[in-house]
Amino acid sequence: LVSLRVTPANNCFPREVYKNIPKELNEAVYHTTTNHLGLALLDENYIMIPGYDAVIDMDVQLGVKRKVRVNEGEVKGLTGEPAFMDYRLFTLGDDIYLHANADLVVVSTLDLATRGSDNKSGRDEEEKKNEENEENSNKSEDTDDMKSSNTDAETDEKDEDRPFVLKNLYGGGKLQVTLQHPFNTIWSGGSKGKNYALFTIPTNDLLKTSSDSNHAGNYSLPIFAEIEINSPHHKVQQIIPSQYQKISRKITNVRQRRNPRLDPMMKRSMLTVGDVHESNSTLPLPSFFNVDEVWFPGKFAFKDFNHGGACCISFSAEELLGDSIMQHNHRDGLSEYPWGNHPSLHVGIAHTHVQWKRWYMDKTKEKEVELLPHTHYVSLIYAFDPFPPFEIRARSGYFCLGFANPVDPTHANGSAEPERGTFNPHTPLTRNRKLRQNNETFECPQMQYVSSFIQKVGDPSKTVIGYGLNDCTPRLVEVAKSEIGRLLFPDVWEMVLEDESQ
Q1: 128 pLDDT higher than 60
Q2: How many Cβ atoms sit within 10 Å of the Cβ of residue 276?
Q3: Cβ contacts of 37-40, under 8 Å, gap ≥ 24
Q4: 87, 72 in Cβ contact below 8 A?
């Protein structure tokens, strides 16, 4: 199952192109509220199964689409932002969780069914209720957002904790998607949280700290939200996604990205278990260093704090270390596992970037801007203990994920190994923006954002990484677990030392 962002917003073309297009077109690209949820089932070759795809205008159906204020033909402020961004899926136990960045992180549980299944009559009844609610919502479309937020208490009273059948705006028609309950909001990261990975751990590891629970709940599978990766500590909160408590408007109004129509959703504060777990250990050094350490000595070219990202896959010690390191450690009498006496770690992928700062607007600093252009992304892998306080035990240096082969496989003519799956005709456009540092250009997209990291179905020796290229096209790649282990724990016995005198 794959989630996709369906929107006209993009960075497929060079920056100069967007500067030179008509203003109204530029606004349509960068201030559009259109950001639909796309879902599809893929076969073993990562090709969409015919009929099992859906595009859903979820913000419209839930009545939270942000109204665009226009003054003399100009879009003002942030009014063009979508209600939902960055859809991600997490399969934990038997449940599929849908994560989205709204004003804060919101989560619900998805139910998928084939249209025409045994439960269709019940779904038809739910669809009728949804349509009635949508009609009532449309009657107040012309009401000013700020005024409507003053009546959100009345709206809350009418909010029912029942499944919501989503209608497909586009798609093959065979996939029926239902929200099992209204979105609940994670407030553990404060007023500006986003991109929290969800994961679970073995229940016996949970028992080490479960006695400090603040909230009782009927739950069988411990679920955690990764609030921060290294800012400078690893912060993780245990959550109960299906349960919530109402919080006051005074609390919800402090959020930085406020869409008033989301106020009732923001008031549904997801229940938590205990306090936020915060790592104690010093962050380990990267397993390798990058050329930016040489180019920009004494300062961080990329933002020091890393962001999610995608997480988590459980790796065994053998998968992380490989036979060579395990044998050398055993021969030399060293601890079998460099991180302790437990035989596995959770592994995730994070990103960071060159952050925009005010001096980029200083025309006297054109040389510095050219050497260190902003909004250029890199990725890294990290590994942590699969139990509280989730200490980070290893992290890789920075790397970038590459471009897709720009050649349609039906016209490859043996020139290069074609991409698997279905060829995306927009693929060549991603090369309009490449990662650049210190006047050097790399064969990677300027913007790369990993949002999927799972173990390959049917082959536990491989992982699947899903990422976006320049907000233009998505890509899935298979990466062997051994390669990820090599990036986290390089084998010093395989290092090649060169004699500088030669």
Answers
A1: no
A2: 16
A3: 37/3, 37/4, 37/5, 37/6, 37/84, 37/87, 37/98, 37/100, 38/3, 38/4, 38/5, 38/6, 38/87, 39/1, 39/2, 39/3, 39/4, 39/112, 39/175, 39/177, 40/1, 40/2, 40/4, 40/175
A4: no
Higher-confidence residue of 354 and 328: namely 354
Average pLDDT value for the chain: 82
Q: What totals of helices (H) and strands (E) does the chain contain, helices first?
A: 13, 25
Partners of 465 in the β-ladder: 453, 477
Contact predicate 380/286, CB 8 Å: yes
Q: Global pTM?
A: 0.85
Asked if residue 489 lies in contact with residue 338, where contact means CB atoms within 8 angstroms, the answer is yes
Asked whether the predicted pLDDT for residue 151 surpasses 50, the reply is no
User: Of 79 and 192, which is predicted with more confidence?
Assistant: 192
Write down the H helix ranges in 300-390.
317-331, 366-371
Task: Give the length of the chain.
Answer: 502
> What residues have CB less than 8 Å from 371, skipping those under 6 apart?
295, 437, 438, 439
Task: Give the pLDDT of residue 496.
Answer: 60
User: Among residues 342, 199, 352, 343, which one has the least CA distance to residue 286?
Assistant: 352
- The 10s digit of each residue's pLDDT in 442-500 is 999 999 999 999 999 999 999 999 999 999 999 999 999 999 999 999 877 666 656 65
Taking alpha carbons only, the member of 48, 30, 28, 26 closest to residue 38 is 48
Phi-psi region of 46 (alpha: psi -120 to 50; beta: other; left: phi over 0): left
Q: Mutual orientation of helices 317-331 and 481-488 as an angle, nearest 10°?
A: 50
Count of beta carbons in the 10 Å neighbourhood of residue 93? 11
Strand partners, 56: 37
Question: How large is the average pLDDT for residues 68-92?
Answer: 73
77, 65 in Cβ contact below 8 A? no
Token pair 């991600």 in the structure block, residue? 88
